[in-house]
Amino acid sequence: MANVKTEGVYGAEFLLSNEETLSLDKGVLISGQNLNVGTVLGKITASGKYTLHNNAASDGSEVAAAILYNTTDASAGDTACTVLTRLAEVAEAKLIFKSGISVANKAAAIAALATQHIITRS
After folding, report:
1. Which has the closest alpha carbon to 118: 14, 9, 13, 45?
2. Counted domains in the chain
3. Which of 38, 45, 66, 84 has the fewest C-beta atoms under 10 angstroms from its C-beta?
4. Pairing mode, if any, of strands 79-84 and 34-35?
5. Measured between alpha carbons, how far is 52 from 97 in angstroms, rounded to an integer?
6. Spatial separation of the C-alpha atoms in residues 103 and 77, rounded to whole Å
7. 70 near 12, Cβ under 8 Å?
8. Quick check: is 7 in a domain?
9. Is 33 part of any domain?
10. What's the pTM?
11. Which residues contact 56 (CB under 8 A, 6 or more apart)?
12. CA 121, CA 17: separation in Å to the nearest integer?
């Protein structure tokens, strides 16, 4: 019997195509989070920092604004990160949304990303 090896998720595995350096920005992930590559983020209006997209929030993060480009551990404090913010094509199945998001709220997040020319593909 052969040994079976399972590979983890690679950085930016969700990305199908993008416009080189135009698609990515530097950002800051707020403290208290350890998020995986492909996580859909919202941007907090007051600080300009990113956090897990939460449609129930009222601080700006209720609107999907970016996708985390690399796994980022900000559990100990605000941490620099790279985010995909525009001009890209992504695999919907590889995106990570807040646990328990409804179908309607997921569709709204995808629509918000589309306004930035981040197009999801099945």
Report:
1. 14
2. 1
3. 45
4. unpaired
5. 8
6. 32
7. yes
8. no
9. yes
10. 0.88
11. 62
12. 11
- Domain region containing 92: 22-121
Average pLDDT, the chain: 92
Q: Looking at this protein, which amino acid is placed at residue 37? A: V
**Cα(39)–Cα(33) distance, rounded to whole angstroms?**
11
How far is 106 from 27, CA to CA, in rounded Å?
23
* Amino acid symbol at 2: A
pLDDT tens by residue, 18-66? 776 789 999 999 999 999 999 999 999 999 999 999 999 999 999 999 9
Residue 6, both tokens: 């399972």
What backbone phi and psi angles, to 5 degrees, belong to 20?
45, -125
The neighbouring-strand residues paired with 84 are 24, 67
Q: Dmax of the chain from CA atoms?
A: 57
Map tokens 């209720």 to a residue: 62
Residue 2 lies in a domain: no
Q: Which tokens is 121 given?
A: 């593909």
